[in-house]
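Case study.
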Amino acid sequence: MAARMRKFKWRTNTIVFLALLSVAITTLYPLFYVAMTSARTLEDYVKNAYGLPKFFTLESYRILIDNYSLGTAARNTVIVVGASLATALIFSSLAGFALAKYDFPGSKVINWSFIAVMLLPSQILIIPIYLLLSKFSLVGHLHGLMFVYIGTNIPFGVFFLKSTFSAVPDTILDAARIDGAGFFTSFFKIAIPNAAAGITTLAVLQFLGMWNELLYAYLILPDQGMRLLTPALASIGGRYTTNQPLVAAALCITATPTLILLAMSSKYLVRGVSTGIGSS
Amino acid sequence: MTSPAVVEVGPVKGPTFAGGRKNSSSRGSLTRQKQRIGFFAALPAFIVVASLLFYPICYAVWISFLKTDGVTSKFIGLKNYVDIFAAPLVHQVFVTNLKFLVAIPIVIFLGLFSAVLLYQEIWGWRFFRIIFFLPSVLSTSVIGLMFRSAFTLNGPINSALISMGLTPINFFARANMAIFVVVLALIWAGFGYAMMILLSGLMSIDTDLFAAAEVDGAGWWQRFFYIIMPSIRQQLAFVSIINTLYTFTSLFGFIFVMTAGGPLYSTTTLDYLVYQKAFSAFDMGQGSALAIVIFGVISVLTIAQSKYLKNDDGR
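After joint prediction, the assembly is written out as follows.
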């Protein structure tokens, strides 16, 4: 193995390890604290906010699900994110594959137009999109929000998958073509399996983006009963500042799926995050 | 021993993402029918983007010339822009945005610090890498609420201050204190992403350079300044640009849950002001005009930064 910076001596190693450990504790402790807070009663929290709870209770979670329809919010979130993610991925893969391997007239223009809109800030879009959706009476409907998520996620999706599909060797595709494979056979039988890792990476990134989105979700579904998780959490957190266990439980419900996803797919996330620089 | 990590973190340079042939040699053999299939495969995505992004952008430009609450509207030319440039509130909010930029050098320093230490492959470094990245997968509203709860008047930070015999601080009632808490949240949330980008730059450094430096007797700091820093220039530029963009366009979630812009507009950022103008004051025209001005500002900043930071990137 080639020397990187040369390995440190063990004493330096220990110091570096302790430095990293203290950064890790700074990162983890707030989350641990929130999880602890969510599992204790309000009286217990007021008396002793720092120690371990006297006993663990899921009472705050029960209140959130029963009284603040967080169960409905979770269901709506899954519907919106699931449908938008699936649609965006299908459209982006088709376009990405076509742009990578089918050199049709106009492909350059389409490619560049996607890259150009990727750089636009969301504030420019929010007002016209809101007005358009309300013109078509889509404000207050789940599929209004789905349209927004599909539209805003496609440009990066196409950009990302175009480079993924470019890496599929032409020789395999040519061989399949000689055997009589059409577009869809090449797409489903060769391109998708060969690009599975890239597609998974994109799916993870875009899932996180949609799950965590606040502005569109808040504006396009203004009705309390229709709220998605992240805006529901934001409004609970805004109103119940005195009941910290309740706010903490809402935080845990919103954050847990993303943390589980991180644990399961860290490999894909690590690689997806470093891909962004390729473009700059 | 180190190669799996290199493959895993550096796909930009790896075979998966850069290996494709640029010029498809099969173009000549493609019949017009196949070109048409390619066009139709790209069409759904293009239609969605055209109707949900291109059209709204043009619409936004049009709205910025109107006085409109979304129901009735009147053409007023450039008045919205004139009003924005004249308004003291907009100036104040712009300055507030500049204050939030304080977070960026700290984020980059912490990101670089942890990336360089992780690069030594200390025991458990992969685990640390994921831990540091953890805040990046959380929603800004989750992070914002965590910090708000922590720093609220009867929250844990103040009870810690009291138990140390100090007087509690009402963080969100004072302008600079409120900004301080938001900046703290930005740093906590953001350094892991910077670390990840910088680490991927470090991973792609040719290790022969270090071997050669070692032969020449270069010390740790010399290698840091003469090998590491020049090699990750591109990643540093990227992190700095992306964080600047973020500060001007994506603080909405933090501000919305932490301070709602207060006290008295002192933590209102440009993107939050767009939201307020459009959806609290129902002045969609001025909101759009402001959004377009922000876009102009960040375009200039991005171009300036990439010129300055990448001018001798000849690799």
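Observations recorded in class. Confidence is low (pLDDT under 50) at residues 1-27 of chain B. Residues 1 and 36 of chain B are 48 Å apart (CA to CA). We will return to this complex in the next lecture.
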